[in-house]
Specification:
Shape: globular
Strand order of the largest sheet: 2-1-3
Structural class: alpha+beta
Largest sheet: 3 strands, antiparallel
Bound molecules: zinc ion
Amino acid sequence: MKGQEQKDSAAPMGTSPAMECRAEFIFYARNQSRKLGSVEVLGDYTCDFRRPDWAHRWTDWNSGRNQYLNLFLCAKHARELGLL
Ligand SMILES: [Zn+2]
């Protein structure tokens, strides 16, 4: 049996795993109704989709109750979620 060393060890070259994504756009809840769309992210943020509280944030976003909620998303996930 091979592959017993595959458990959780770091990638040898230190490259980002494909699982990780960087936020490329900010979506402001207060802009939703005005259809202003997205704002490009200038800093270095992890995509909110990867956050442990993502489900909660997404529920909040869809409820429209939290006007101060911002979503930081990569283009891929923003598209999947129908935000782009
Ligand atoms: Zn993403």
